[in-house]
């Protein structure tokens, strides 16, 4: 049974001089991440939706903490944040794998693309991703509610995530740790290996092409996805692929900024760099950073 009724998010309290600059930066990233989600393709649409869920589950509370130094969060609110963050992060990993397979079929099996990636199959894949990852988020949040928190209530992070919460529990956390390792192995390691296999086949197929123009065209169709995968997996591995006992708050905060703020902002930019809407949004971002009074931000 849980004894703690609220937690205190440590946030960026160790950097008081950077509080307002961080607020302006995070607010701008959140605005751009939420306003650029008009993708052209089906999986990009799902990825954009999960980007919005990810940023919306973390950044509003982080912005409140930076602007008003209000860092308390209720236990139910913490569990809700944990669920939505776990749901969106695991969904993005599966969606990136599905997109890698899509690029593999498009480049290595172009004649089979229409039936291998049919609309019904894509819809089934997306529905399966959302359902499986929602179950994953519910499982981790449910296991966390079974723990007792009767000691310190300061979370060494700017949002609720599994490793720092486990360190605060005064009851056994073996089951939680095992489920976390299994989830890391499936969502992180296995999907990363599947993505590597897909791109290994893609690279081999590109190198066999005789035309230099054909090689450039084939590479351009997957370079954006490869960049997004590299950034996202680097942040996730740094934040999660390690035991809770070796948890580092500083390292985790930096990694979390990458996959909860920077990556959702970069995704639509990387995929739609020539889009007029993206150019306007980037202009608004630069204007907000250079002239915060335009958006009513603290000077």
UniProtKB/TrEMBL annotation:
<feature type="transmembrane region" description="Helical">
    <location>
        <begin position="20"/>
        <end position="36"/>
    </location>
</feature>
<keyword id="KW-0297">G-protein coupled receptor</keyword>
<dbReference type="InterPro" id="IPR000725">
    <property type="entry name" value="Olfact_rcpt"/>
</dbReference>
<keyword id="KW-0675">Receptor</keyword>
<feature type="transmembrane region" description="Helical">
    <location>
        <begin position="254"/>
        <end position="273"/>
    </location>
</feature>
<keyword id="KW-0812">Transmembrane</keyword>
<keyword id="KW-0552">Olfaction</keyword>
<keyword id="KW-0807">Transducer</keyword>
<feature type="transmembrane region" description="Helical">
    <location>
        <begin position="185"/>
        <end position="207"/>
    </location>
</feature>
<feature type="transmembrane region" description="Helical">
    <location>
        <begin position="219"/>
        <end position="242"/>
    </location>
</feature>
<dbReference type="GO" id="GO:0004984">
    <property type="term" value="F:olfactory receptor activity"/>
</dbReference>
<keyword id="KW-1133">Transmembrane helix</keyword>
<dbReference type="InterPro" id="IPR000276">
    <property type="entry name" value="GPCR_Rhodpsn"/>
</dbReference>
<dbReference type="Pfam" id="PF13853">
    <property type="entry name" value="7tm_4"/>
</dbReference>
<comment type="similarity">
    <text>Belongs to the G-protein coupled receptor 1 family.</text>
</comment>
<protein>
    <recommendedName>
        <fullName>Olfactory receptor</fullName>
    </recommendedName>
</protein>
<feature type="transmembrane region" description="Helical">
    <location>
        <begin position="79"/>
        <end position="101"/>
    </location>
</feature>
<dbReference type="GO" id="GO:0004930">
    <property type="term" value="F:G protein-coupled receptor activity"/>
</dbReference>
<dbReference type="InterPro" id="IPR050516">
    <property type="entry name" value="Olfactory_GPCR"/>
</dbReference>
<feature type="domain" description="G-protein coupled receptors family 1 profile">
    <location>
        <begin position="1"/>
        <end position="271"/>
    </location>
</feature>
<dbReference type="GO" id="GO:0005886">
    <property type="term" value="C:plasma membrane"/>
</dbReference>
<keyword id="KW-0716">Sensory transduction</keyword>
<keyword id="KW-0472">Membrane</keyword>
<keyword id="KW-1003">Cell membrane</keyword>
<comment type="function">
    <text>Putative odorant or sperm cell receptor.</text>
</comment>
<feature type="transmembrane region" description="Helical">
    <location>
        <begin position="121"/>
        <end position="139"/>
    </location>
</feature>
<dbReference type="InterPro" id="IPR017452">
    <property type="entry name" value="GPCR_Rhodpsn_7TM"/>
</dbReference>
């Amino acid at each position: 049974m849980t004894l703690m009724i609220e937690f205190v998010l440590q946030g960026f309290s160790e950097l008081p001089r950077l509080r307002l600059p961080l607020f302006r930066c995070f607010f701008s990233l959140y605005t751009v991440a939420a306003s650029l989600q008009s993708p052209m393709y089906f999986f990009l649409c799902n990825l954009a939706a999960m980007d919005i869920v990810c940023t919306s589950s973390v950044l509003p509370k982080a912005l409140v903490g930076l602007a008003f130094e209000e860092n308390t969060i209720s236990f139910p609110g913490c569990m809700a944040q944990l669920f939505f963050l776990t749901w969106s992060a695991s969904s993005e990993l599966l969606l990136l794998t599905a997109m890698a397979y899509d690029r593999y079929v498009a480049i290595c099996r172009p004649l089979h693309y229409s039936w291998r990636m049919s609309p019904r199959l894509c819809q089934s894949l997306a529905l399966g991703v959302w359902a499986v990852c929602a179950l994953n988020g519910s499982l981790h949040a449910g296991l966390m509610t079974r723990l007792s928190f009767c000691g310190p209530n300061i979370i060494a992070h700017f949002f609720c995530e599994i490793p720092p919460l486990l360190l605060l529990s005064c009851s056994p956390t073996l089951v939680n740790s095992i489920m976390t390792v299994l989830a890391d192995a499936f969502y992180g390691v296995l999907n990363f290996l599947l993505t590597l296999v897909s791109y290994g086949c893609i690279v081999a197929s590109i190198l066999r092409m005789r035309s230099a123009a054909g090689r450039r065209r084939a590479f351009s169709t997957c370079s954006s996805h490869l960049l997004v995968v590299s950034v996202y997996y680097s942040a996730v591995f740094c934040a999660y692929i390690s035991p809770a006992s070796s948890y580092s708050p500083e390292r985790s905060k930096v990694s979390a900024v990458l996959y909860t703020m920077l990556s959702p902002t970069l995704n639509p930019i990387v995929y739609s760099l020539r889009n007029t809407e993206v150019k306007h949004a980037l202009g608004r971002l630069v204007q907000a950073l250079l002239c915060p009074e335009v958006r009513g931000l603290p000077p």
